[in-house]
Amino acid sequence: MNANIRATGSTHDSGTSDYARALIEWFDASARDLPWRAPDFGAWGILVSEFMLQQTPVVRVVPRLAEWLERWPTPAALAADSPGEAVRAWQSLGYPRRALWLHACAVAITETHDGVVPSDVGALRALPGIGDYTSRAVAVFAYGDRHPVVDTNTRRVIARSIEGRDDAGPPSARRDLEAMERLLPHDEHDARRFNAAIMELGAVVCTARRPDCDICPVRSSCAWLQAGFPETGGPKKKVQKKFEGSDRQVRGLVLALLRASDGAHGVSVGAVDAVWHDGVQLERAVDGLVRDGLIARTPDGFALPS
Question: For the chain, how many structural domains are there in total?
Fold first, then answer.
């Protein structure tokens, strides 16, 4: 029997398959208690969380998210502050350009949408720093609209449980969304829960390195398990370059110095020169930060963007 037919199986009156129902019921019973899953969390909070969660572990996001939303509870509040303050508050989340994009996004929401995060995928996609995934995630998780939402975890679960492959292969927006659409319940409420459930399964059970098949809610229909866990020759994972001594480390040291400075006055050239022993590498890192808009040159040195 075809894996897609076996996995989706019969459907309920709401258009929810046995496969989807098993995942939703597991999610309702076992999902992590995360702040952005609260019913009253709001579209702005969900949008901020999606920016922060890109390539950053949940455990680091939760405290920083709370700090951000206490300081900037609305897009207008963030837009009224400087982009430099957004970079300062980003602290150790990594990929600090996301702070600049989030600030630009808040400005656009304030100026174009009267301070209200839009619900339409196209309108969300048009905002600075928002791609296909984030636009769909906000429309689904903030407003309950029915759209397929696909992240790395979703792709892995579909590849294994439906297609019988250990690796999803290179991303393809069209193919990945079509695969998720075929599984998505017709009912909007079920669709929203299923989107969250399949991501959660990939994050905590069907993980890349150590899947825990014994507790998987769809193990009885998993095509990969039934095939004996074949290695299907997915692309080799890139080995992350060493952080110690890298340009990323130097950029981080310079940004940390600027974050600790007085926002109005910044720091001197001499203070920046003291953070790293290799002048050529330091200059390269500083030039990159200036080019990315994360720091600005001043008459006396450098400051966060105003």
Answer: 3
